[in-house]
């Protein structure tokens, strides 16, 4: 397979997925985008009852069922209250780092289909007005959304159709640089979803298939802890493709595929992890093996739901997770190549 040849498709796919607002529970647009891409490549798809997407790929042999998964839900915000001044107080969906959101542009989606724009701000937003502009906490009690409409009270906000429970989606600021970096919020985990769609394109173009029957699960509740519960428990193996962590006490870089030996939920399957390490060495891939201290994946939830599948986790190294994230084409290419080697589809 020509892994270098999929770069343009990969980055365009990533930009398409990242442009579709999809915090947990509000993922229909990202799922539809992934569905269109997979269908355009000629693969059969189906939706789960919870709104996820399954892509089915027949293998050359039918003695095992292999699953790959990535999640297309992201972090986000929801309106929890409307103030007397017409501001929207927020509650987090997943774990966004709230101080990084101070000043971010956003969209407010109403239940009747209207979309408004706004800005997430500290409640002390002006240096010429507030003594505590630098010291006020950036948290749910001290940040709000300023709506880009002429509103001065809660009644005028509600007249726009905006209510408590409406989703607030902040701008991912997606950029692909000439030097090969993908910069964006929500690379966790739309970067990995793009890698799996690029792998499907490579298989189609090469006229090949995985060794065993394979299904890709794009889950939609990973960021709030139950995405993997929808993955069938009778798979023989499950490979989660999620971001690799970059930071203190970790060896992974943005240019590598990370192989996770253990996260906060415990160790991954020893034999499967060892096989992935051996494949990375055999193929000359740039990789790292790490232990993630503040991390869990869809595998953890699948196991807790009763799955007997062997399971492991790989993904491109991502810097500044849950903030302004960044990865590199090299890390994504190494991830695609390791997944292809694992599936024995070359």
Polypeptide structure, described:
The protein is an alpha+beta fold and 346 residues long. It folds into 2 domains: 3-74 and 186-343, 3-Layer(aba) Sandwich (Aminopeptidase); 76-170, Peptidase M42, domain 2 (Elongation Factor Tu (Ef-tu), domain 3), CATH 2.40.30.40. The chain is 25% helix and 30% strand. The chain is built from 7 helices and 19 strands. Strands 1, 2, 3, 12, 13, 14, 15, 16, 17 and 18 form a 10-stranded mixed β-sheet that branches. Strands 4-5-8-7-6-9 form a 6-stranded antiparallel beta barrel. Strands 10-11-19 form a 3-stranded antiparallel β-sheet. A hairpin with a 2-residue loop joins strand 15 (257-263) and strand 16 (266-267). Helix 1 (7-19) packs antiparallel against helix 2 (28-40), helix 1 packs across helix 4 (187-206) and helix 4 crosses helix 7 (329-343). The longest helix has 20 residues, at 187-206. It is globular. The mean pLDDT is 97. The active site is at residue 222.
What topology emerges from the helices and strands here?
Layout: H1 7-19, H2 28-40, E1 44-47, E2 53-57, E3 61-71, E4 76-82, E5 88-93, E6 105-109, E7 115-122, E8 143-147, H3 154-159, E9 167-170, E10 175-176, E11 181-184, H4 187-206, E12 212-219, E13 237-241, E14 244-245, E15 257-263, E16 266-267, H5 270-282, E17 287-291, H6 298-304, E18 310-318, E19 325-328, H7 329-343
Parallel strand pairs: 3-12, 3-13, 13-18, 14-18, 15-17
Antiparallel strand pairs: 1-2, 2-12, 4-5, 4-9, 5-8, 6-7, 6-9, 7-8, 10-11, 11-19, 15-16, 15-18
Helix pairs in contact: 1-2, 1-4, 4-7
């Amino acid at each position: 397979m020509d892994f270098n040849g999929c770069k343009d498709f990969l980055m365009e796919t990533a930009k398409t997925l990242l442009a579709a607002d999809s915090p947990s529970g509000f993922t229909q647009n990202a799922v539809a985008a992934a569905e269109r891409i997979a269908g355009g490549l000629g693969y059969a798809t189906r939706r789960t009852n919870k709104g996820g997407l399954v892509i089915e790929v027949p293998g050359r042999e039918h003695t095992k069922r292999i699953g790959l998964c990535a999640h297309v839900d992201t972090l986000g915000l929801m309106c929890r209250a409307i103030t007397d001044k017409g501001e929207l107080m927020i509650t987090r969906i997943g774990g966004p780092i709230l101080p990084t959101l101070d000043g971010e542009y956003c969209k407010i989606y109403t239940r009747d289909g209207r979309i408004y724009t706004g800005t997430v701000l500290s409640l002390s937003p002006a240096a010429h007005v507030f003594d505590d502009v630098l010291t006020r906490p950036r948290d749910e009690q001290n940040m709000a959304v300023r709506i880009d409409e002429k509103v001065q009270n809660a009644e005028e906000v509600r007249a726009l159709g905006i209510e408590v429970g409406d989703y607030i989606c902040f701008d991912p600021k997606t950029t692909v640089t000439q030097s090969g970096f993908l910069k964006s919020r929500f690379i966790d985990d739309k970067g990995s979803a793009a890698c799996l769609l690029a792998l499907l394109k490579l298989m189609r173009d090469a006229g090949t298939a995985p060794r065993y029957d394979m299904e890709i699960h794009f889950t939609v509740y990973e960021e709030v802890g139950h995405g993997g519960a929808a993955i069938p428990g009778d798979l023989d193996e499950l490979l989660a493709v999620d971001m690799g962590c970059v930071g203190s006490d970790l060896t992974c870089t943005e240019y590598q595929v990370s192989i996770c030996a253990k996260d906060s939920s415990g160790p991954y399957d020893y034999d499967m992890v060892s096989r992935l390490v051996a494949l990375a060495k055999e193929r000359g891939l740039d990789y790292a093996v790490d232990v993630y201290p503040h991390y869990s994946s869809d595998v953890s939830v699948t196991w807790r739901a009763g799955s007997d599948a062997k399971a492991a986790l790989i993904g491109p190294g991502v810097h500044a997770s849950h903030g302004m994230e960044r990865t590199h084409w090299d890390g994504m290419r190494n991830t695609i190549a390791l997944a292809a080697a694992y599936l024995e589809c070359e």
